Amino acid sequence: METKLEQVLPQEIEARSFEIITEELGSRKLDEKYAPIVKRVIHTTADFEYVDNLVFSPNVLEHALEALKNKACIVTDTKMAKAGINASAMQKLGVEAYNFISDEDVVQQAKALGSTRSAASMDKAAELNRPLIVAVGNAPTALVRIYELVQEGKWKPELIIGVPVGFVNVVQAKEMILQLPVPYIVAKGRKGGSNVAAAIVNALLYLACGR
Amino acid sequence: METKLEQVLPQEIEARSFEIITEELGSRKLDEKYAPIVKRVIHTTADFEYVDNLVFSPNVLEHALEALKNKACIVTDTKMAKAGINASAMQKLGVEAYNFISDEDVVQQAKALGSTRSAASMDKAAELNRPLIVAVGNAPTALVRIYELVQEGKWKPELIIGVPVGFVNVVQAKEMILQLPVPYIVAKGRKGGSNVAAAIVNALLYLACGR
Which pairing describes strands B54-56 and B184-187: parallel, antiparallel, or unpaired? Predict the structure, then answer.
C-alpha cells in the first residue's frame, strides 16, 4: 500500500491547515472577530465542537489586545500551557509568561490549606499586583480560586481564559467564571486542555503583533 | 444562580475522574491491558473517541515497559509534550526526556534541507544511537521522517507514539507508521496532540513504576 502525502512546504503547512478548517466549516458562520481564535483551537485539537463550546464576554478581544499592548503578563496553571505559548510572539510584544505550580511557597500553601497547587498558584498570581491574563487549561480548582479572589475583591485579571478539561467540577467551575464581571474566554463543557489554553493565548498574541 | 461543586479532596480528584470515565464507558469493553492508557488519554481530553482511535501494535506494552526499565530516553517533537511528562515518575525510573526542536543544529539542518524543524529533530534523535521512545504529538512531518529513517535501516526506536493532530498529512503519516515493524501506539485519524502524547507517556511511566 502506498500512502499519498500532500506536497506542502513547511512554511505553508499552517496556512493550508487553516484553509482546510475554513472549507470544512462550510456554511457554519463564525463571528468574524473571534474566528482566528476558534480556528486556532480547532487547528490544535482537530475538534470542531469548539465552534459551539467557546464563549466570549462582550468586547473581550478589545480588552485582551489592549492588555497585551500594555505588556500584561500571562500566568498559566500548568507548565505545559506555558510551554505551548509562542516565545517569539511574546518577545515581539515584550510580554512574559509565568507558571508557579512548582514554586516552593505554592507547594507549602497548598499543603497548609488542603487545596491544590493549581489553586494556590492563583493566589500567587493575584499577589503579583500587576495587569495579567490568566490561562487555565487543566485545573478547575484554579478557576474556582480565581472566582473567589475576584468575588472577594482581591483580584481583577485583565482576562480569564477558562478552558480546563475533565470530569470533576470542570463544567461547574466554568459556569462560575461566566458569572464574573471580568473579560473571559471559556470553553463550555468538559473539553479544553493546556493545548487549548496555549492556542487561545497564541491566537491573541498573533492578533496583537500582527503576525 | 448557585453552582454546586462536588466535594473532592485534591489528592482524590484524579481517582474520581477515572471512576467517572469508567462509569461512562459503561458496557464498552476496553482491552484490560491498554485500559490505563486509553483512560488516561480520555482523562486528558474528555474525548471518548479515543476508545476507537487508539491502536496498539502486538505486545507493545511489554516492549514499552521493558524499554523504560532499561532507562530508554524519551524524545518528543514539541516542548509542550516534554513539559507534560511527569518529572517525578521519570526520576523514579531514572528516565530522561529530550526535545531538540530549538537546537541550533536542528534549525540549520531544517533550513538546509527545506524540511521542518520537527523532522530534523528526529534525525538528531536517531543519531543519539541509544534506546529511545519517540513521542510525536504535533508534527506529521516528524512521523514521516521516522518512517523514512526506519525504512532506510538508520533507526529502530523502542516505541513510536504517533499521535500528531491536524489537517495536513496527519492521517497519512499515522497510516505509514502502522506499516512499520516497530512497536507503536497510534491515534488514528486527525485527533491527537502534545497533551495526548504526554498522557500516553505518563500512563506508561506509571505502569512501569507502579504508581
Answer: antiparallel
Rounded distance, CA A24 to CA A10, Å?
22
Instruction: Name the nearest CA neighbour of B195 among B36, B46, B11, B87.
Output: B46
**CA distance linking residue B30 with residue B41, whole number of Å:** 13
pLDDT at B1: 53
Dihedral angle of Cα B192, B195, B201, B204, to the nearest 10 degrees? -90
Q: Which of A16, A45, A179 sits opposite B168 (nearest CB)?
A: A16
Burial A75-88 (b: 16+ CB within 10 A, else e): bbbbbbbbbbbbee
Residues of A in contact with B1 (CB under 8 A): 175, 179
Instruction: Check pLDDT > 90 for residue A211.
Output: no
Res. A1: pLDDT tops 60: no
As a whole number of angstroms, the distance between CA A163 and CA A54 comes to 9
Output the pLDDT for position A141.
96
Instruction: Provide CB contacts within 8 A for A127, sequence distance 6+.
Output: none
- Contact (Cβ atoms closer than 8 angstroms) between residue A122 and residue A134: yes
pLDDT at A46 over 60: yes
Which pTM was predicted? 0.96
How far apart are alpha carbons B194 and B99 in whole angstroms?
A: 12
Give dist(CA B163, CA B178) in Å, integer.
Answer: 12
Q: Which residues pair with A134 in a beta bridge?
A: A75, A160
Cell of A92: 515581539
Instruction: Phi first, then psi: give them for residue A142, nearest 5 degrees.
Output: -70, -40
What parts of chain B have a pLDDT lower than 70?
A: 1-2
DSSP label of A141: H
Question: String of b and e for A9-35 (b: at least 16 CB within 10 Å)?
Answer: ebeebeebbbebbeeebeeeeeeeebb
A155's enclosing H/E stretch is: none
Catalytic-residue membership of A43: yes
Asked if A196 and A46 count as a contact pair (C-beta separation under 8 A), the reply is no
* A165 interaction partners in chain B (CB closer than 8 Å): 44-46
> For chain B, how are helix, strand and coil distributed in percent, rounded to 5?
55, 10, 35
